[in-house]
Amino acid sequence: MTGTGSSDRATRYGERLEVPDLAPWLASRATVREFDTEATISESEVRELVDAGRKAPTSGTTQMYSFVWVRDQSVREQIHDLCDRGTVQIEEASHFLVVCIDLRRIEHLLTHRNREFQLAPTMGVLEGSIDASLAAMGIMVAAESRGYGVCPIGNILNNLGAIASTLDLPSGVLPLYGLCIGVPKHGEATENAPRVPLDAVLHEDGYEDPSTELLEECYRSMNAMYGESVYGDSTREWQETLERYWGPEGFMNRRERTLLDALRQQGFFAARGIDERADENTTQP
Amino acid sequence: MTGTGSSDRATRYGERLEVPDLAPWLASRATVREFDTEATISESEVRELVDAGRKAPTSGTTQMYSFVWVRDQSVREQIHDLCDRGTVQIEEASHFLVVCIDLRRIEHLLTHRNREFQLAPTMGVLEGSIDASLAAMGIMVAAESRGYGVCPIGNILNNLGAIASTLDLPSGVLPLYGLCIGVPKHGEATENAPRVPLDAVLHEDGYEDPSTELLEECYRSMNAMYGESVYGDSTREWQETLERYWGPEGFMNRRERTLLDALRQQGFFAARGIDERADENTTQP
């Protein structure tokens, strides 16, 4: 916070590289849903991409995340099966990572220095998902700058506990979503990502509920490119997806129970600490 | 998922711009802690940066976030006070945004189309924080590409309910962290971000607990540039921060209660839906 040593930092760590204005490029990005299954990306590149992404901000330098790089094709197939809906990208992309909250490493680090760790489960979920996602977005940006495409897989939340068990994840580690990285089948992602108008998302000097006109405009802008762009189905409209996610019978409500069970299985509700093995916890519902 | 219409997408939406390999640039990034208080960034630029960032992936196109752009300097001062620890960047940066989970807009969108919304609180917190953070990282990358610096403010979690009230945020909206955007006082962020070794974070074909050697290496790499780089204090070591965050008396444990209270205040535990006003909920602990 003080200026100590600031003036010579440039000479110590070197000047930062120059890049062009990335706003227009970022504004043109889109998730890739079809990968070239013949294409390969080297393992050293995957390490470079992850290394670049994790320089994203992290709460108090604590780095509450891990990436599990799943290379065994049969494990990828199992995870695809457990996702319950067509996310064939898990099998078809060149690489598949699972983005995880990781409080376990923090506990190990503190114990190693004879200090005590105490779990705060809700904060752990919140800060861990923030930390992990900031880093994951960095990985995606790095991958896309190399011409690769990315596809996050949120459907792992449909069967979270089973996926954690398939990956043999210990207590303190919670999977959040998958991250497919590969070469786009059609050369690049050109569909762009449909989004509601900026005014629905950016509130100036306070929070304002959307007017009827703005709600209509949200549907217009989403449906203009929605069905075919996202699902290859021009008849599909956005309200169906919103209801599928947030309606009374939607994914989010079904996943709520799955998530709470997975949190318990992975030790997030243990009385103190996360040192029990995940598989021991499953016998104590 | 099908190939319908894919072949002519490039002509419909145009080819994506080219950028250089961003991995080395991202790997050199760092949070800026000192801003030039005389510098200005135009309001239209802020809108461009937010617009670029929110093309980040979002779960099922639902966009469960909002950004509250706080321009009133006295409100910035109030938030700085409520953060409880020195985060003077809130006042000194050119712009200050509050990154929020927003389930309220989803409810409005569904209701507008005569469909029902039903809250799934834990999923809302998890998916909302993921969505918001992917977008926030996009904003940061866009800002940094223009030579600006960013500083996320996690300390709003120290007094979350009061900050939500200060911003008059309604039910269904939960602040997560602040985002300062400004011109770095020393020209650029040159400190780089200290991180544990990649091997502690990237697990290949399974999850492996860190060995004693790797734990030692984590401390070595963090402490090599930690104190002065992050706090301008060369005597400060990383284990102190880890304990301040995750020890029994740490921030995370103190914030756990604050977070649960704020979630209740913001309607996340309402029996169904989030339609009560936040200020009504506070009377029902």
UniProtKB/TrEMBL annotation, chains A, B:
Family according to the record: Belongs to the flavin oxidoreductase frp family.
Pfam families: Nitroreductase (PF00881)
InterPro entries in the cross-refs: Flavin_OxRdtase_Frp (IPR016446), Nitroreductase (IPR029479), Nitroreductase-like (IPR000415)
Source taxon at top rank: Archaea
Name of the molecule in the record: Dihydropteridine reductase
Keyword Phosphoprotein: no
Keywords tagged on the record: Flavoprotein, FMN, Oxidoreductase, Plasmid
Single GO molecular function: oxidoreductase activity
Record carries keyword Ribonucleoprotein: no
